Amino acid sequence: MAQRIDGRKIASQIKNELAEEMTRLKAENFRVCLAVIQVGEDPASSVYVNNKKKACALIGIESLSFELRQEASERELLSLITFLNTEPKVTGILVQLPLPAHINERNIFEAINPDKDVDGFHPLNIGRLWTGEKGFLPCTPAGILQLLKRSRISLDGKNCVIIGRSNIVGKPLAALLLQENATVSIAHSRTKNLPALAKQADILIVAVGQKEMITSEYVKKGAVVIDVGIHRDENNKLCGDVDFADVESIASAITPVPGGVGPMTIAMLMDNCVSISRN
Ligand code: NAD
Description:
The protein is of the alpha/beta class. The protein is built from 10 helices and 11 strands. It has helices spanning 7-27, 43-59, 74-86, 105-111, 123-131, 139-150, 170-179, 194-198, 244-248, 261-275, and strands spanning 3-4, 33-39, 62-68, 92-95, 159-163, 183-187, 203-206, 224-227, 231-232, 238-239, 253-254. Helix 2 (43-59) links the parallel strand 2 and strand 3 (62-68). It is globular and about 55 Å long. The termini are far apart. Nicotinamide-adenine-dinucleotide is lined by residues 140, 163-166, 168-170, 187-189, 191, 194, 207-210, 228-230, 241, 261-262, 265.
């Protein structure tokens, strides 16, 4: 039976370490302040925003909330970002996704000061990631790397297959794993014979956005399986992209949903906020 990788425990360790770091920073009069912008009142987004604010409070990071109406124009949002970009008190800016359809996400990512871009979505930070320079790392991929490292799962020379090529998970994760000397393949909806490719993986990372799609047919015996997906099943219970019950019996280690990758995303957002002090 596979070892369960406990994302809640690892995220909590990281947040405790950050809280200690913040205590030291405050003693040196260094302040960290995250501005969180939400456009509209999507209930799921409100839950995520609240969780981020709670994590800030726990660690000792100040947070400021900016709530714009669903109908707010792209220009309004851009002018708020322009203000926050130069506001000295604000050290990090986060725009909660998804944005309403009339706002172009790319324009928003590009408008954020790259030195306050704690989500790591600005093209400059994406470029820094691919060239191995210091910059903000996107939170979910950074969280997956921490899950592996803190579970003492070595990446050096390993075959890693990532299923999913999104800009927020699959692509940046590939850059991070390459830096750790893994051999990385990215599979997607046009990949031919996906089970055969996935079965070559020592470490299989699934960010496919399809409920419980990945069964033991896709997994090599003894592989490590990381499940990024979040869905609700027919009983309204959370589940992932991986059929956990089926894959658990063949993998050597696996992340559950909930309690795997999810908690790590906020922990790494907090890490990005505090990392401003480390430059
Ligand atoms: P996305 O929808 O942007 O991308 C999905 C990717 O999967 C695409 O690249 C697509 O080509 C590929 N794909 C889709 N169907 C496929 C198939 N049948 N075979 C092979 N490839 C296929 O998704 P995303 O934003 O990367 O998110 C993926 C999942 O992770 C979602 O369930 C999302 O909710 C979840 N997620 C979780 C966190 C977290 O913090 N835990 C963060 C981000 C996303």
